[in-house]
Write a structure and sequence with these properties.
By secondary structure, the chain is of the alpha+beta class. The chain has a domain of 88 residues: Beta Barrel (OB fold (Dihydrolipoamide Acetyltransferase, E2P)), CATH 2.40.50.140. The chain contains three helices and seven strands, in the order αβαββββββα. The protein has a five-stranded mixed β-barrel. Helix 2 links the parallel strand 1 and strand 2. The protein is elongated and about 85 Å long. It starts with a helix and ends in a 5-residue tail after the last helix.
């Protein structure tokens, strides 16, 4: 009877140890640190798996089959990024857009992205140089409801 309890206790201990080890190692692998293009280019990060934010450089976006290459820029510095994936990229991902890429930074200076996020532009932002329009006033009422006299 004691022998069965001992074997059962050892079995439970092994199972709990394996579960704890899997949880800890999975958590360590899923950690992603956010860095800037400047920090990454200067080698200030010792981690390979990172998340980097910046602007998609003008005239750098190239799509070839399932591969997308571009340069992610911040101020005067930029890094080359390669994305090979089957996920559809956001419509707002284009040259001049702000983007966040997540993946591995290789020792040769290339960033291999696994995920790409593009910042959405504000849909309610006024066009530069256009006159501001308010939503109130007699001209708006007349346009909406006709020219009724009260």
């Amino acid at each position: 009877m004691k022998n069965k309890k001992l074997k059962f206790g050892i079995g439970i201990g092994i199972i709990l140890g394996v579960v704890a080890w899997e949880a800890i190692s999975g958590f360590q692998e899923s950690k992603t640190y956010y860095v800037t293009v400047h920090e990454l280019a200067q080698g200030k990060t010792a981690r390979r798996r990172v998340r980097v934010g910046g602007m998609v450089a003008e005239h750098s976006l190239e799509r070839r089959g399932g591969t997308v290459t571009f340069r992610l820029a911040q101020d005067a510095q930029s890094i080359p990024v390669t994305y090979i994936g089957n996920e559809t990229l956001p419509d707002t991902f284009k040259e001049g857009a702000q983007a966040i890429v997540e993946g591995d930074y290789t020792p040769d200076g290339m960033f291999r992205a696994e995920k790409i996020q593009a910042k959405c532009a504000s849909k309610y932002q006024a066009v530069p140089g256009a006159p501001a329009q308010s939503g109130k006033g007699p001209d708006k009422v007349a346009a909406l409801g006709g020219s009724k006299q009260l």
